[in-house]
Give the backbone structure.
Amino acid sequence: MKNNRIKLMKWLPLLIIPLLAAACTFSLPIDLQAKSSPTEAPAATEIVRVSSPQNTTQMVLAGSNDEANLIDLYARANPAVVHLTVYVNYRNQLMGEGVGSGFVYDEQGHIVTNAHVVQDADAVDVVFSDNTILEGKVVGMDLNSDLAVVKIGSLPAGVQPLALGDSDQLAVGQTVVAIGNPYGLDGTLTRGIISSLGRTISSLSSFLIPEAIQTDAAINPGNSGGPLLDLSGNVIGVNAQIETGSSLSTSNSGVGFAIPVNIVKMVVPDLIATGQHQWAWMGVAGGTLNTYQVQAMKLDVKQGAYLSEIMGNGPAGKAGLHGSTGTRNVNGRTVEVGGDVIIAVNGQTITSFDDILLYIGLHAKPGDVITFTIIRNGKTMDVDLILETRPDNING
């Protein structure tokens, strides 16, 4: 197993006392439950999904004068990108704990950043590109999506919120730009492409963040919370993590990850209104049905979502859904068998485990009753389930 780690990118100034630096310089594996290396496929635990069809017709292409476009984009966007300095109370004195980035979300002075940037903050300074420094207050935080909102009293003159794009309309190969404060270097612009879509990255909870945008635009410690932009200057993601290639390194190896803007659109309004976002939860772990399971369980269907584990006394357990009962060898491969196979939710066909997560993430909320059509022991039946609020942690 490789010794790679995905790094959260809040940067700590070198002058911070060693105690604070040790407490805040950390990395998280992609799969927080299985503690696996990011080179391994994470366990398909229930997470909220956001679709990202490869719609190349919506790509934003560089014009003939690419350099002028970038200069104009930076001039328009950089005033709305901020440098966040985070302080913690140490022996009754505020000490600099780290720095990160953020961007202006609305005209009321709400700033979007990563939750891991401000999670332990006792005070936050918001620094604009003209060196205006304003006191910020953390008004909401969601550990499941690693998003947070900081509020300032009012925006400096001339500063406008950044426009939000649509992460469903992105394409691999599309040119993107990151603006932020790597290593405390304010207003740094880097350029790259979208290297891949639909990645799964770690959060600050036991759940995973789906549909992350992978980019080769240079992202480094201090870029956390800053915007990933298309060439029209629309925010398409929030820069959050990097692959360093080594547990001893904190530098970008050409692989960075951003939280898609469509998750921002879901979460941030709730953080502003109530300080938190409630995710729906059904309490299962599983994966997409594969051909070996089809053979082993002698199924008449070839597509669906297979339930391998039912979480404790969660909604799925209360509804009577079944997880795996054992394993079987098929052509030298060991596969789980005995679990329910979901083929539809509220009448909509299910072809993969991701389809369930997508439905719950975009079309359901805690308290909703949903109907699963399942196959169990060769028989097709409907099971009603009442969704609950996602817990802070999964204990099995």
